[in-house]
Amino acid sequence: MENDVLLQLNGICKYFPGVRALHNVDFTLRSGEIHALMGENGAGKSTLIKVLTGVYTKDEGKVRIEGKEANIKSPQDAQNVGISTVYQEIALCPNLTVAENMFIGRGKGKITNWKKMNARTTELLTSLGIPATATQQLGSCSIAVQQMVAIARAVDMECKVLILDEPTSSLDENEVAKLFKLMRDLKAKGVGIIFVTHFLDQVYEVCDRITVLRDGQLVGEYVIQDLPRVQLVSKMLGKEFDEMSDIKTVDPEAEDIKVGTPVIECTGLQSDAGIKPFDFKIWKGEVNGFTGLLGSGRSECVRSIFGADKVIAGEVKIDGKPIKIKKPLDAMKAGIGYLPEDRKLDGIVYDLSVKDNIILAYQVMKGWNHPISKAKAEEFAQKYIELLEIKTASSETPIGQLSGGNQQKCILARWLLTDPKYLILDEPTRGIDIGTKVEIQKLALKLAKEEGKSVTFISSELDEMIRTCSRLIVMRDRKVVGELNESELTQNKIMETIAGGES
Amino acid sequence: MAKNAKATAVTAPKPSLAKRVRNMSDTNLLLTITITVFVLMYLSAILFLGSGFLKPQMFLNILNENAALIILSCAMSLVMITGGIDISVGTMTALVCMSCAVHLDYKGGNVFTALLIALAIGVGYGLVQGYLVAYLNIQPFIVSLAGMFFAKGATTIVNATQFNVENAQFQALKSKRIYVPGLGSTNKHGIYIPAYVEIGVIVALLVVIGLFVFLRWTKMGRSFYAVGGNAANASLLGINVKLTKFTAHMMCSVIASIGGFVYFMHVGSGSPSHAAGAEMNAIASSIIGGTMLSGGVGNIAGTFFGVLSLSTIKNIVSALGFDEAWWTNITVAAMLCLFLVIQSIVLKRKTNK
């Protein structure tokens, strides 16, 4: 492998209002290497890529290309210094033809030479085996073809650095194989490739080096042979593999739960959010959980159970009876509650009072033509404010003024008020203080044990999952890859299952 | 769809009509529809309403009457293709007319300097509106709404009442007729009346051809489509989106000011009520011509036929004896609806793959 440095990033910082997206990140790309950029969703991969391609301007740090400092302010600048990019979302114009999409924004001159452009495009399409014609409107191609066109464009640009930001998520195996061949050809020509993906298999198939980011910070750069899968996963999650051999005492009574008809039983459930069909069961009084890296499809699974994403296949049974869930209201009426992952976006109604937020789901279930009386609403609000120890000045305080943890408790109260049989808690403890976290974990266990509810718990923190759940469903690359029972619930075992393959 | 594409790529030198339609770009499909509708409409007018529509002068008069609207609509199409809109072109036409009229009759100016004034108004509008839309990222509708009110007020400041221009040089230009050989007709006294067009028609045709070439073959022209299709992605593809939007608004305003001058040459007067509602007619013509309000789709040739369709339908309605203004308005409304429905079907075709 050649060792001359093509691209060097030093001390890159990027801040968004209230968020430190990147902090002091270094990154080095050598010519003729395929370098994987890894990290969970939100680790800062995409931000780093966008800084590099001029979509965002960096707040601090230096970018050097072949030793010279480059000042990249716009995507055009990036193209001019030899960086070409394939983005995760298709970044092409659907109203233009395939050929135009390949050539627009490139090259000198003011005039479009259609003949030359179409001829060159046809050549490229044939050589890459892309089933499209040059004069076809891009919007009429399938997503996979569009992505291949984007790749063809990037490859044709004679670039020094090629960035592939999760290009494979919409491609099938054949197309991925084609892409990998292309990447190896370019590597042989001395192009440096940055490859972002969440598919671990693909990383180990083509990459030479791995740089891991976590929470906007650099974890480290590794040569691929030195970093086994499990190590990679532990680096991404921020847990040392060795420390994870804590012992969990198995409660003998716990096994008794899995008897009789499951409260919820899903078979072959699939939604349009891109998860593979999965089976799922939960029994009365059980707390189970979905685990996996962020972006592995955990939330998408529970969203499809709740009907928040459009379900395209599979069936759901509640207490053994089949039920059609087309929209969240159907699920609510069937006794399912869902505490969403993004509290700010899907959960709280920022300007409404604590009381109004709490009674919202109950009111929706009753229907708007059966209003809840003021006295009744106040009574419900007070009950849960006391029960969950929500710290608020009064039930009339706008929920936006509460701390994150107390907002989360209000949402929890909202669902408890509807008295669900089955409650889904998607990242209920994210961004809240440790005390409240423990309270919420205890509450989940209490609901199951004392009130016989079934609870599905999702969290990014493994120890929290181990503490609360008696059964874990493990996901990788949007697929259920394993199920771990109480006795197998150790951090090591979980991480091995997440990583997959030989460790 | 990928399967279909493969089939056309590998086999079939002559794909079936349905497949050809499916593979056609939205722009070309809408253009084809527009031209077909216009031709059918004109043919049926000839068939059912008789010889009036058969006279070439009848057709040329449509051009004479609508030269300014053709230019304004072309200007409108430019910004609409980039996903914007400019509703200031109508009152700007009135401002151009009034300024030129005052310049010619009260200040003793000549036609050439009057034209310069018109262009200066266009450049001024282009600079301000283009800057606000492209670099400050303000909604084009709001920006041009302000522009519309400004021109309305400014026209009245220049001169509050209507008056006809008497400048001799201008009168000569206004009444200049360009005869089209071979298209004349003989009246009932046996006298040959040659067919003619006004100067404005020549200007309009030059604008149509010029913009057609610009949009089809220049990189900037293609950028208009890319920006209208998806501005964020166009930027990622290396297009300077701000400059593109600015250029579109600049071109729109300058061309609209030329349209204003052509309007002035046609009516020969200045009035605060000139070209009232012209921006709406321009938008309607662009839409009938296959330009989508959402941007990225449109064709100048289509806009040209859009204007012709709009005025032909008005002629047909009055030839049928429905002379009142509301009948034409209702017909135009129906026609707009028809084309909007067609556009939404085209959009659906795109998603149903």
Question: Short summary of the structure?
Answer:
The complex is a heterodimer of chains A (503) and B (353). Chain A is an alpha/beta fold and 503 residues long. Helices cover 35% and strands 24% of the residues of chain A.
| Percent of residues in helices of chain A | 25-40%
Instruction: Give the count of structural domains of chain B.
Output: 1
Based on CA atoms alone, the radius of gyration of chain A comes out at: 25 Å
Task: Identify the CATH homologous superfamily of the largest domain in chain A.
Answer: P-loop containing nucleotide triphosphate hydrolases
Class by alpha and beta content of chain A: alpha/beta
The largest sheet of chain A, given as strand count, sense and whether it forms a barrel, is:
6 strands, mixed
CATH topology of the largest domain in chain A: Rossmann fold
Report the largest inter-chain contact. Answer: A-B, 39 and 39 residues
What count of structural domains of chain A?
3
Q: Quick one: CATH class of the largest domain in chain A?
A: Alpha Beta
CATH class of chain B: Mainly Alpha
Describe the structure.
Chain A is elongated and about 75 Å long. Chain A has three domains: 5-243, Rossmann fold (3-Layer(aba) Sandwich), CATH 3.40.50; 245-335 and 422-428 and 453-497, 3-Layer(aba) Sandwich (Rossmann fold); 341-419, no CATH class. Chain A contains 17 helices and 20 strands. In chain A, strands 6-7-8-3-9-10 form a six-stranded mixed beta sheet, with helices on both faces. Chain A is of the alpha/beta class. In chain A, 35% of the residues lie in helices and 24% in strands. In chain B, strands 1-4 form a two-stranded antiparallel sheet. Chain B is mainly α. Helices cover 72% and strands 6% of the residues of chain B. In chain B, strand 2 and strand 3 form a beta hairpin. Chain B has one domain (39-348): Orthogonal Bundle (ABC transporter involved in vitamin B12 uptake, BtuC), CATH 1.10.3470. The chains are: A alpha/beta (503), B mainly alpha (353). Chain A binds chain B through residues 53, 55, 74-76, 79, 85, 87, 90-97, 100-101, 104-106, 109-112, 114, 125, 131-133, 135-137, 139-142, 144-145, and chain B through 1-3, 5-6, 8-9, 22-27, 216-223, 225-226, 228-230, 232-240, 296-297, 350, 353.
